[in-house]
Amino acid sequence: MRAAAFILASTALLIGAVPASAARPRYALALSPAGFAPAELHVPAGKRVVLRVTNTGPAPVEFESSDLNRERVIPAGGAIAVYVGPLHPGIYVFFDDFHPTLRGKLIADRAAP
Amino acid sequence: MTRAILRAALLGAALLAPLAPARADLHVRWPVVDYREVEYEQNGLISFGRAGSGFDRAQSYSNAIGVGILPSWEIELEGESQAAPGEGLRMDAVTMENTFQLTEPGEYEFNLGFYAEYSRSVRRDQPGSVTFGPIVQKELPDFLGTDSIHTLNLFLTHDAGPGGSHATGLVYAWQSLLYLNAFASPAIEIYGNIPDIAHAGHFDEQETLAGPVLVGAVRMGRWGTLKYQAGYLVGLTSASPRGAVRWQLEYELAF
Question: Strand pairing of A79-84 and B185-194?
Answer without folding.
Answer: unpaired
